[in-house]
Amino acid sequence: GNPADITADIFNDISKFSGALDAVLSDRNIDQLAILLASLPGKLALETSNAIIAAYAKFAKPILIGWSARRERASEAYDALEAAGIPILTTPERLGRAAGVLSRYAEIRRRMPVNPALEANRIQAKRPGRHHTLNEIEGKRLLRDFGIPVTEDVVIQPGQELKRACASLSFPVVVKVISPDLPHKTESGGVQINIVDLPALQAASDEVLRAVRQAAPAAHIEGILVSEMITDGLETLVGIINDPTFGPTVAFGLGGIFTEVLRDVTYRVAPFDLAVAKEMIGELRGYPLFEGVRGKPALDVGALAQALVNVSHMAWDLRDRLYELDINPLFVRPLGRGVAAADCLAVLAQS
Questions:
Q1: Which of 124, 136, 166, 342 has the most neighbouring CB atoms within 10 Å?
Q2: How far apart are the C-alpha atoms of 130 and 64, rounded to whole Å?
Q3: Using CA of residue 259, residue 263, residue 268, residue 269, what is the dihedral sign?
Q4: What is the per-residue pLDDT across 232-249, written as a single tens digit (0 to 9) for each?
Q5: Which of 48, 63, 60 is nearest to 17 (CA)?
Q6: Are the CB atoms for 302 and 208 separated by under 8 Å?
Q7: Beta strands 131-133 and 344-349: pairing type?
């Protein structure tokens, strides 16, 4: 039964304890074992610990110990269990909570199948001391590698003929300066929106160059980015934080004017699956906006959830290289039209 009680016979024959461990751990229906050692001391504690360690090595299933004996009464046993990586909890309540957390963690791992399409784009490298900020083109290329949709963009150089270069785009468009030295381009005048035709595009291109050269004369300008302007989407923000305690963590919230006013943001440790991504979306106070309000259409929550999953895979796969990432805004469009990242700030360790 559960619990399995071997009684005080352990004091007479330690082999019966070993036999009980084998019987329980060999059961395919049992995934982990919690053992209450009460206040078992001295030599018997060491013999018992050695039997547990042998069973742990044999079956490779998690074992947790609930043990109230003071360390000075069983120091060798404590040392042996800790050296084997078997955790010791001091009360039955803590033992139960730890077993529950381990079970939930295992369930999360089972829900995280590898995505072969994304696996091909993994970037592996040891993290050196230096890092650099990607420009928007490089950042969006990184997003595309992990299956995160981005806006349609064209790169032009000063003096380039605009009509031919931008033939694939439809007005209105957005004009931005490309520079790794300007992570926040708007503050330097490096962004112009709602450009409606070719003459306005030429004027906007000239203006962003002039403004940036005046506001940040030392900034290295790599060109001008002309992007489709999303007019039917809700602005959201997605970020990756490489937290020293929790590791790669994904933040998600409402973007645009809602970011500073509502501070409506939720977090999850990466990686995670679609069910968790949908939980994140549903947690926002502004969730009704995704369902459609005041005659506006419902938004593509399914595509948003998949984008969040892909971001979480990026966070995990690049955990040794990625310092931070901000997608702001990630536009969520009406149902069936998906999502699109309009801007991306990424800081990577240099390889």
A1: 136
A2: 41
A3: positive
A4: 999 999 999 988 888 899
A5: 48
A6: no
A7: antiparallel
